[in-house]
Amino acid sequence: MVFTLNGLAQIAIYFIILLLLTKPVGLYLYAVFETKNTWFERVFHPVERFFYWAGGVNEDEEQNWKGYTISMLIFSGAGLLFTYAILRLQNKLPLNPQGLPAVNPMLAFNTATSFTTNTNWQNYSGETIMSYLSQMLGLELHNFTSAAVGIVLAVAVIRGLVRHNTQRLGNFWVDVTRCILYLLLPICTIYALFLVWQGVPQTFDNYVTVTSLEGFKQVIAYGPVASQEAIKMLGTNGGGFFNANSAHPFENPTSFTNLVEMLSMLVISAGLLYFFGKSAGNTKQGWVLFGAVSFIFIIGAVVTLGAEQAGNPLLAHFGVNQVSHGYPLAQPGGNMEGKEMRFGIGSSTLFTTITTAASCGAINSLIDSYTPIGGLIPMVNIQLGEVIFGGVGSGLYGLIVFAILSVFIAGLMVGRTPEYLGKKIEQYEMKMVSLAILILPLSILGFTAIASVYHGGYSQISNAGPHGLSEILYAFTSMTGNNGSAFAGLGSNTPFYNLTGAFAMIIGRFAFVIPVMAMAGSLAQKKIIPAGVGTFPTATLLFASLVIGVILIVGALTFFPALALGPIVEQLLMLARKTF
Amino acid sequence: MVHFKENLSKKIAPLAALVWRFTLKYLRPAILLTALIAALVSFVYPFAITGMAQALFPSQANGSLVYKNGKPIASSIIGQYWTQPQYFHGRPSATTNLLGTPSPYNAENSSGTNYGPTSSALQLEIQTNIAELKKENPDVPANTPIPIDLVTSSASGLDPDISIAGAYYQIPRIAKARGMTQNQVRQIVEAHIHGRFLGIFGEPYVNVLELNLALDQAQHK
User: Fold this and answer.
1) Does some domain include residue A414?
2) Which residue of A138, A150, B97, B162 is surrounded by the most CB atoms within 10 Å?
């Protein structure tokens, strides 16, 4: 491990900015969903009312957990079918200046599922497969709706925790509409214009052809990139306009845009933690969880930095210089394969840690080319359940699952009925928590096992040796975790991966959240019991460390064997100078 | 028979009512809200952004194109393929054409190698890149350490930048090809260094196209 002062400073300054943004964003979220008094009410309220009128939604009627969950499932299903239809028909629809053909059925199904579940796993290269209409209507729609669905599910779960003696968790349609109108659209408008200012294109023209000074012709793909880029990052979607995603200079042209993109991936998830504390009537409850995940986050960021800055020992004897230098002979050093010059090591590894902590999956460097340990951290980030801040919404409700598991374990230790925020945690809640926690590894490890022995699975790996297993493991980790980043060497645009991947993504999104909503519905009905002497306090440093311990132990028990066969053994072989 | 029909309609009626209630309660808002949200975020939003972007930042919105004699020669932030000795060269690019044949700096199909750290393909790629770099720059002393960015492929295959050390490495070749002194070329490099954002984020770099345009301009004087 090699650390540069600059690399560590990037992590520190980034974290401080995130910390400063958490409270204002949390307060704004509270204004959007609970008090309904944002700055934009006057502008958007007529639009909002029109939406409810058209949809036949009674604004004041709240739903129980089943109504809320069914609404969410039907809404997601409708969007999935809609996108599938657009992709299949893009050759017959307008806004296709390149004359691209229809997307094949398997790929269209995989892509529609991928965007509906906020995964944005991409088995295609955007600039060569998707028409402008498909990008805008088929995919951008989900960038907004899947993000909104994640956020409102978190809001509903929080309501379940903090309300009492009620079945009502809010109105799904109202929450989704308000999330898009008052939260996502205003921020994205400013964000997109900022990106254009920095160099991200925003045009509907056909690709442009230039002739270089040496006489080479170069066709340059572009399009309405900025508007998509903004929501791709803010909604932790991650599906890029271009194949190279945020490594492409048109998606992420400067270190300034890179910093803003990194902040936008975590800012809503961090704000939701504040929102949680405020809803619970004690912001400390939120800050404790914030502290717990920050601890894991910073360790991950530092280890990834150290692993990548150390470079690849297999290249040492070629006479290349992998040591970082300052002026005048400034160079980044480290493992620069698959990384962009303007980001170097520090801004690449921090972005990678963030994108996998959040369920974003955008990449600004190729994780497949990371050193084994550098690639292990992003994989572990996802396998821990994407609760290290996590995706918009999904991170929060995942973290609450771990918080409840932690109070349960604490309750076992002292032999008392566990309580969280004044609610008794009983058999039903623990069943739902266990179900949610077990579903993700079942999908990740189950599908990885199948792909490792089935020809259609292992024949698609691009790197031999343990790295091949890492590619498969990462793929199903990423898809189940609804992340979408990849060890991109894996040839995953095949019927086998399109289909298994689609199921992994559906399991990761819906099979996880249904038990969580059931738990929230059950908690909402309970009465609040005042804290007694036997109550385990959950706004303390002790509880934060317990949460950290539970997250890490559950993750390690589940995934260590698989990780040992992949990245860990590869790191040892790399140090022993073995190649494949 | 009549009796049976009555029975059936008694059974169907509540079922139909249930389906109708379900439709009103869930399907109607799902379909209509999807349509309205789609109109808003897929059309109003991107077209409004396009309008504002084209008005406020027309150059960037249209790909930051660079013109020479009225013709577009490049985008200032998309890397290009350079081969001639009098120009600075960019990093290795792994982009291909649609058939999978190598086609460096293909701005229609961005991609990197995706070679894993222990893959022998990576070893071969880097050895090849080193050999090529050394052949192109015969005047660089053999023991000069090679800046890592000059022999590794970028993530996008369209990286427009190289490190400052990477530029220095190429100075002897360029000075010789242009009949300039190494000092003159070095001054051009130093005048075009981009620092870190806020002095902290990212890496210092030079943009290859900026350097090459400056070189041509310096020589025309």
Assistant:
1) yes
2) A150
Per DSSP, the three-state class of A336 is coil
Tally the residues of chain B: 221
Using the CB atoms, write b or e for A440-469: b if 16+ within 10 Å.
Answer: bbebbbebbeebbeeeebeebbbbebbbbb
Window 53-112 of A, Cβ < 8 Å to B = 54-57, 67, 70-71, 74-75, 77-79, 82
Alpha carbons within 13 A on the beta-carbon side of A285: 23
Task: Count structural domains, chain A.
Answer: 1
- Quote the domain boundaries for residue A490: 393-575
Please give the residue of chain A at the shortest CA–CA distance from B67. A210
pLDDT single digits (tens) A99-130: 889 999 999 999 999 999 999 988 887 778 88
DSSP calls for A219-269:
EE---BHHHHHHHHHHTT----SSTTGGGSTTTS-SHHHHHHHHHHHHHHH
Band (B5; pLDDT cuts 50, 70, 90)? low
Residues with Cβ < 8 Å from A215, sequence gap 6 or more?
none
Residue in B closest to A228 by C-alpha: B46
A343–B contact, CB cutoff 8 A:
yes
Q: Is residue A316 part of a domain?
A: no
Is A561 exposed, middle or buried (CB count within 10 Å of its CB: 0-12, 13-18, 19+)?
exposed
Examine residue A525 and state whether it is found in any structural domain, yes or no: yes
Contact at CB, B113 and A208, closer than 8 angstroms: no
Tens digit of pLDDT for each residue in A493-541? Answer: 999 999 999 999 999 999 999 999 999 999 999 999 988 887 889 999 9
State whether the Cα torsion B97-B103-B109-B115 is positive or negative: positive
Q: Is the dihedral of CA A402, A404, A408, A414 positive or negative?
A: positive
| Pairwise CA distance, residues A205 & A208, whole Å | 8
Nearest residue in chain B measured CA to CA from A53: B29
Does a structural domain hold residue A276?
A: no
Chains A–B, number of C-beta pairs less than 8 Å apart: 417
For A300-305, what is the mean pLDDT?
A: 97
Of A209, A342, A471, the CB nearest to B161: A342
Give the Cα separation of A232 and A236 in Å (integer): 6
Span A53-98, pLDDT tens digits: 999 999 999 999 999 999 999 999 999 999 999 999 999 998 888 8
**Residue A249 to residue B78, Cβ atoms within 8 A:** yes
Q: Which distant-in-sequence residues (6+ apart) come within 8 Å of B3 by Cβ?
A: none
Token couple for A530 = 């005042």
Residue B221: how many CB atoms within 10 A of its CB? 4
Listed in sequence order, the residues at least 6 apart from A572 whose beta carbon sits closer than 8 Å to its beta carbon are: none
Give B206's strand partners. Answer: B162, B193
A20/B contact by beta carbon, under 8 A: no
**B85 vs chain A: nearest CA distance in angstroms?**
11
pLDDT number for residue B4: 63
Min Cα–Cα distance to chain B from A418, Å: 37
Predicted TM-score of the model (pTM): 0.95
Set of chain A residues whose Cβ sits within 8 Å of the Cβ of B183 = none
Whether B92 and chain A come into contact, CB under 8 Å, resolves to: no
> How sure is the predictor about A491, in pLDDT bands with cuts at 50, 70 and 90?
confident
| Residues linked to residue A320 through DSSP beta bridges, in sequence order | B146
- 169-198 of B, contacting A, C-beta below 8 A: 190, 194, 196-198
> Chain A residues with CB inside 8 Å of B156's CB?
242, 244, 247-249, 340
| Burial classification of residue B54, based on how many CB atoms lie within 10 Å of its CB (0-12 exposed, 13-18 middle, 19 or more buried) | middle
* CA distance linking residue A372 with residue A355, whole number of Å: 18
Contacts of B127 in chain A (CB under 8 A): 318
